[in-house]
Amino acid sequence: MPSLENEYISGLQRAYESGEFVVTAEIGPPMSSNASHVEKSADVLRGVVHAANVTDNQTSIVRMSSLAASYIGLTRGVETILQMTCRDRNRIAIQSDLLGAYALGLRNLLCLSGDHQSLGNHPQSKNVFDLDSIQLIKAVADMKNHSIFINGKKGKNMPKFFIGTTTNPFADPRELQIIRLKKKIEAGAQFVQTQAIYDVDSFESWMSEVRSLGLHNEVYIQAGILVNKSLRSMEMTKKVSGMSIPDELIERMRNSENQEEEGITIALEIIDRLRKIEGLSGIHIMAVGWEKIVPTIIERAGLMPTFDSNHSD
Amino acid sequence: MIVAEQKPIEEIVQSIKPYKKLLIAACGTCVTVCMTGGEKEAIELCTLLELVSELEGIQIRVKTIERQCDREFFVDFEEDIEWADAVLSMGCGVGVQFFAELYPGKHIVPALNTKFFGVTRDVGYWTEFCQGCGECLLEKTGGVCPVARCSKSLFNGPCGGSSDGRCEINPDIECAWQIIYDRLKAQNRLDLLLETLPPRDWSSSRDGGPRSLRKSSVYLEVD
Ligand code: SF4
Ligand code: SF4
Question: CA separation (Å) from A91 to A42, A126, A163, B110, B157?
């Protein structure tokens, strides 16, 4: 646990800057106020990943707040990445949470638009979207670089987050999605995590476009990997809008006698191919509902991180 | 135009049940065009209500007030309004309120659910185009409104859920940002989208409280 007074910077940022191949995973906060659930997830990931994303009411289902769970994870010795969406908070709440998160020692922030509330378990709710994710990135960068709030007024002890965001190489319209990535970088994004990759060929062509624009030199790019435990889980994943899974992988899963092992093998093959792609700085592993498999994947991929000793635990 | 749809008949019956003399007031403007609250629909609704056993003995008159959001169109109907115990207004939410303001002693019952500002896309099919946000930015988005037509009102391009021109929330909804992209690309004006739009000042929208407008060239302060 870092001292709140000293200006400790993000260990994730240091790992990127030292050129390590960065590995992150996720902590999904529980649909309860049970802190030990978060602690258990953190225990699985401690020493295994550089940092763990803590999701913000993902798919618009009410869960423990990302801020609280990020803090619990941190006290358990896992550096966390606070996910923050624009769906539920206006600029007053967002800036207030940013001040609070930084005061609690959180240093990494992932800025997202957020899934629409109609996809979740309170579709009757009002949405906010006072800011979009690019405006959010800009606001966080302005706090850091110019010590100002969104209204342009100066602030004191402003948070200096390591700023991340997401991008989806498979979403439409592709040209506009790349423009949007560029705008996110201009706004101040320092690292970007992609949507889960199954179709490596198509991701390679996206990466070559990204390289031709030089974007890989301006932002650390982490490819998303989703580990499926079963055919059913893979089929459900395929249904998510903006997700692309080649039929061949679905078939492999269907014909396998040990779907868990097949799921791991597929993930490892994808990781193996991704690591050879020029301009990629790391991977982000999502194992929704199967978190305990993450260390196995990282171990078998030969990607156990080497932490430097002044790290936070 | 303002697009609306009729309330469920049971709900209408519950609100008018206490009354013996009912005026159904159609509106000749937007709700006529969207085939919900015009004369034709008012007559149909009247026929239907006369068949409802709970309303036995009710007397109903049907009249069309050309524009329920404008004072001058009410003058010809003074006698009918006076006669009625209650008025079932088939105007939009604006019409119902204005009616109630003009006749504060009368129970004015809404017959419609007012939905949105939109256009007729096809026969019997309307879609939302504008939210009256108070500061129009259509010039920057190829004439397609991201406030009303993107499910998340995003200002700087599509979210990651845009797929095949469809919005992540429902494949029946078009992704506004796909339309913006196609339009500007065809006009060779994609460079417009390179600009990052700053956070919106929502105080020009409903978020600044209920809005009003005075045009100084025509508004005369009466004291
Ligand atoms: S930008 Fe505002 S005023 Fe213009 S069409 Fe959209 S909602 Fe209406
Ligand atoms: S899919 Fe398109 S319309 Fe739907 S929320 Fe995303 S950008 Fe907006």
Answer: 30, 16, 17, 36, 19
